[in-house]
Amino acid sequence: MSIRQLASKALEKVWGSPDTEPWYPSSSGKTGEVWFTATEEPRLLVKFLFTSGKLSVQVHPPDSAAGPGKTEMWHVLRAEPGARLALGFEQPLSRERVRAAALSGEIEGLLHWYAPQPGDSFFVAAGTVHAIGAGLALCEIQQNSDVTYRLYDYGRPRELHLDQSLQVADLGRHPGLSVPVELGEGRRLLVECPYYRTESIAVMGELSYAGGAQADLLICLEGHGQFDGLEFAPGQVWVVPAGTPSFVIRPRGAARLLRTCVPQ
Question: Which of 221, 264, 214, 202 is nearest to 239 (CA)?
Fold first, then answer.
């Protein structure tokens, strides 16, 4: 098998944004998410998220007999002034306190909010109570599941899932910003967990890339060029099957990619 581009699916959301450039052409609609699903290994789901409003305060479940959970990571692509995202709480809380705060709307003020910058990464383990504010563009890498339990939704007419949320939620503090590890030659390890290992790769000139024992996904964040003669552009995701022979990445100028795979 050889490297190939994954198909995308754009979803409009009430909190989405028409401002999706340079990854996708701007439109009159409100694009909230662009999905890329690998049907073969690695079975991960990649999303580009664009926000002009607040997402719900929510939590995702862990793996269970019912199916896979949803552990994810966010890599910040763009952050307007004042943009914020929340992970965990300012201080540990009881389930009774969180339930009451979700019903009253006070929960938003109990979360720990961060002011993200482009290039930041955050690891969001299953069970982490979180929220994403307006003015952000993110690349999200996650288990191939989309089970979401909402605790609070700013009065929007969507179902809440308080009982399910409180069964799986970690009600403590979150460790915060992930600290990258420099790997050399323009590579930085951003996040590693049992479900995926994600690196950032700065490509300043021709780069030889060899497929490994497991499949990789290459996510194009910045720049244009070619993978083994195939044109790539921002906002694309490519799968490199296991055992793919070495090929050359040729950027036109400079490019920045994310590489993610399932650790062996």
Answer: 214
Q: CATH code for 54-168?
A: 2.60.120.10
Instruction: List, for residues 156-194, the tens digit of each pLDDT value.
Output: 989 999 999 999 999 999 999 999 999 998 999 999 999
Say whether 259 is catalytic. Answer: no
What is the residue extent of each domain of the chain?
54-168, 181-261
Residues forming beta bridges with residue 251, ordered by sequence position: 225
Tokens (6 digits) for 168? 């799986």
Task: Identify the burial level of 237 via C-beta atoms within 10 angstroms of its C-beta, where 0-12 means exposed, 13-18 middle and 19 or more buried.
Answer: buried
Residue 4 confidence (pLDDT): 92
Put simply, whether the predicted model's pTM sits higher than 0.85 gets the answer yes
Quick check: do 54-168 and 181-261 share a fold?
Answer: yes
Q: Sign of the CA dihedral 232, 12, 107, 158?
A: negative
Residue with tokens 């720049």: 223
Has residue 228 got a pLDDT over 90?
no
**Overall average pLDDT of the 116-131 stretch:** 98
Q: Which CATH architecture has domain 181-261?
A: Sandwich (2.60)
How many secondary structure helices (H) and strands (E) does the chain include?
A: 3, 22
Q: Using only C-alpha atoms, what is the Rg of the chain?
A: 19
Q: Is residue 85 over pLDDT 70?
A: yes
Q: Which is the catalytic residue, given 4, 84, 99, 150?
A: 150
